[in-house]
Amino acid sequence: MKQLSRRDFLRTGGLVLAGAAGVAAVSKPVSPSSHPPHQHDQMDHPGDLPGTVGEVDHAKNGFDPTQILTDFDYGKVSTLPGGQILREYEVISINKDIEVVPGIIYPAWTYNGRIPGPTLRCTEGDRLRITLKNGSNHPHTMHFHGFHPGAMDGVPGSGPGGSVEPGGSFTYQFDADPFGVHLYHCHIFPLARHIAKGLYGAFIIDPKGGRPPVDHEFVMVMSGFDVDFDDENDFYAVNAIPFHYQNHPIPLKVGESVRIYLVNILEFDLLNSFHLHANFFQYFPTGTSMTPAEFTDTVMQTQAQRGIIEFSYRYPGMYMFHAHNTEFAELGWTGMFDVTE
User: Fold this and answer.
1) To which H or E segment does residue 78 belong?
2) Which CATH superfamily is domain 6-54+214-340 in?
3) Whole-model pTM?
4) What does the pLDDT average to over 94-116?
5) Residue 23 confidence (pLDDT) above 70
6) What is the CATH number of domain 65-75+85-206?
7) End-to-end CA distance of the chain
8) What string of DSSP letters covers 236-256?
9) Sequence ranges of the domains in the chain
10) The domains spanning 6-54+214-340 and 65-75+85-206 adopt the same CATH topology
11) pLDDT tens digits for 152-208?
């Protein structure tokens, strides 16, 4: 049986596609007035925007990208005898079928049954203990970007934590450093397959004094899915489900300050990007400085690059954000901010 390629899928009409994906503000906004934040009904496809027909089963998937935006895991918190804060986390790797677009089920590998895995958050200098329990049928690890001893690196050959066998467990322990937005992922080989199948997540270390307060903080992890296993992505997304934030726009108010922790873990494509319509943002590469490096509306990231984006909107409207690569946007990496007075 011939495998379904992304181009075959497009030819069969599995996606509703057209060329008007560059519209900055859509003329059919969805009013959020009767909804609490992040509880919009599904949005009809405005105009000729790309999109899928129907909705994935988020309950069966076990996660909802709208909730992932603000789901920060601060761990179980206690204080060590010397006064240092201890944060303890438990992560379980499991095989799980995920409906990535309506009708297409992907045999994913996950941390805690979701893609991306939990967003682990802490403060610079905290002692971290992250226990990985392997509930799958493949060896897995957790490799964290940041400072840590070699035995905690989660790479084959680095020690017991370099290959956690099925049914086994290992506790990674280190102090959180440096502050910024980072990531973690499995580092078992073939590395591309372990990452592409879903074993990754965001890892945020706040500076000791904290960052300036904002009205909204969101985490967005950019990735893709190779559903026919030909080492080419067939769909692209933020927080796993293509077109989710187009179908479920993120509600904002005019003048509200927004901070996005943006991480790129896309496999099989060299670069990814984030473009914000009708606006500019301050960009903090890796988040390791409190001073922005650029004021722009588009930023590119290669795999494992990340940064912090800060902005607010001056005017009400429905505004697109997406990868500024036409193929990525038309295959799922696109969303909307619904800005009201």
Assistant:
1) strand 76-79
2) Cupredoxins -  blue copper proteins (2.60.40.420)
3) 0.88
4) 98
5) no
6) 2.60.40.420
7) 54
8) EEESSSTTHHHHSPEEEETT-
9) 6-54+214-340, 65-75+85-206
10) yes
11) 999 999 999 999 999 999 999 999 999 999 999 999 999 999 999 999 999 999 999
